[in-house]
Amino acid sequence: MEEMDEVLRAGETVVSRRKQSRKRRENAATVGSDSYARKTWFHNMLSIPPRQTLTSLSLFTAWSAFMAYVVGGILGVAYPPLSALLNMKLSGREQEYWRLSCGALAGIGFFYIVTARSRPMVAGNGAILGTVPERVFFVTAVLMWLFRQSLVPLRVVVTFTLLDTTLATITYIIWSRNTPGASPKKCLVEIAKLMLPILGPAKKCTSNCVQMIGYIQMAISLTFMAKPEIARDAMGLDAFEGYSKGLIALFFTQMAIIGWFHVLGGGDGNESCPIAAVFYRLAWSTPLISLMYYFDCIERGFAVSMGIADLIGAIVILIPLCIEALSSK
């Protein structure tokens, strides 16, 4: 009898432990689902927590962008006299155009971080690789072109050319060492898949809207970059003096790069880019321009034009974003 009692007690202990283990699993699942449900658009935008293990390429892209672009851009916005380090002694409108350019630089860094942490729908690293030719060829060519017209000093050209070329080269090396069969051709193919929607899988309406806005922004920005006089006449800017013309061209160069990020992010169909496109406009670009206009730092026409463009872009992306969010519930 005693042996039977011991066996029964042992059986009850096992059953009790199994029940407790089952309850712990159920509680863990409940907590996990609650935390997932509590995830906000901000968490989705920055992929917090990451939807996949961040590779060395993603980590390098995010951290280098934060240190070089975000920190540098914010410092330039907060303290424009730092431009003297680049042999640019600015005053008046020149200083405010420099502030705008630094704000755009911080925005570029923000899109680098979002792109690096996101999970693309299209296989590969096309969005990150798309920054390599942009840095090596586009940025270098534009800076050299501006320098030849005496619109920016040589130190600006050397600084940003070395910075972007170095980061782009390291990016390509990291990718090639971690990708079987890596080659320049494969790199270009991955980029082309994002630029041409027909080459990739079907994507959500939001991603298509982001890519469309990116192409439009690139076209307009490149026009104003090539002919700053058009921007001056269209937006009612003051007459160009000193480095004003070069800084306006530089600002729209950066706007074209941000448009390029829209093309890449919309092309790879990740969930982060549409949210980032709205967040950048409503939380950074529009408030910065509004404050600068309020303190009479920039012209009214410039502030109104950029503000309207940002709001239209945000609304076009936000509407399908909200529809998709509601339909998924």
How would you state the average pLDDT, rounded?
89
Give me the count of strands: 0
Rg calc: 25 Å
What percent of residues are in strands? under 5%
Shape: globular
Helix content: over 70%
Q: Structural class given helices, strands, pairing?
A: mainly alpha
Q: Give the H and E element order.
A: HHHHHHHHHHHHH
Contiguous low-pLDDT stretches (5 residues minimum) are: 26-37
Written account of the structure:
The chain crosses the membrane at residues 54-77, 97-115, 127-147, 153-175, 246-266, 278-295, 301-323. Keywords: Membrane, Transmembrane, Transmembrane helix. This protein has 329 residues and is an all-alpha fold. Helices cover 77% and strands 0% of the residues. The protein contains 13 helices and no strands. The radius of gyration is 25 Å and the shape is globular. The chain starts with a helix and ends with a helix.
